[in-house]
User: What shape does this take?
Amino acid sequence: MNIILVGYIHAKTIPGCSQELIDKLGVLVDRMSINIELPSQSSLQLLAPDKSKDNIVKPMSYISSQLSASAQRLLPNKKNWSFTPNALLPSANLSKPKLRNFVPAGQTTQLIVGATPESDLKIIKLSESLYKRFHLKRVYYSAYISVNEDSLLPTLEKPPLLRENRIYQADWLLRFYGFSADELLDEQNPNFNTLLDPKCDWALRHLEHFPVEINTADYGTLLRVPGIGVISARRIVRARKEGHLKLEHLKKLGIVLKRARYFITCDGKYYDAVTKFNDSFISENLIYLERKRLASS
Assistant: This one.
């Protein structure tokens, strides 16, 4: 009996896993992960002494090298590798299914937020390094939940879900919006603003870059405007090739005007009733919007 799997398998490997086992598992699964869990060596030594940075990084690095090697074998002329999900599909001869590439959906990891004293800056700088060094598909974040009483662990009334959400928002900015960790936070401000999402917070701290003229700003500049995402920025660039954009066009392009309106102009004019361009006016309005969003979520 031949069984053909058309689906998705995510395998979790342990730190220190041998290269031989990774090779065998890598051609059977779609995605592989080695969870770091804690964002520093000192925290690992304190709470997970059986783990070390070295026995986490070595298999992670090996998986990354095998991903690159697999991509080069399958697409030898492609310079920029993109590892996408791939299923094991039946061939004409069911006894010989089509060959799969190695871990086609890439590798991921997970970090626990709030169990140890590391700052948000420490966490996102680690994530940024992991994306650059090992080409991870995702870093997942999990808010720490107090379950057992332990002198080594904090006792929290509730999980730091808002903090987890802010880190996820920042992670998105790292991966898709061209931001760096050092732009979002620094040693003087090592944790994210609980009142504003990271993109709005960055924009308010850098009003010298605004307002942005919708009809002339390049794609990278548009991505930094609160309320403009990857899709809407592409739509703006594409729509400008067809003609000059006016205020009434913006909402149709998917721009979230209740945020973007404070940071853009169209033909040199602010959108709607925005008449003041100063940080306190903009901040008060954005905080009000964020409170409404959090209250409804």
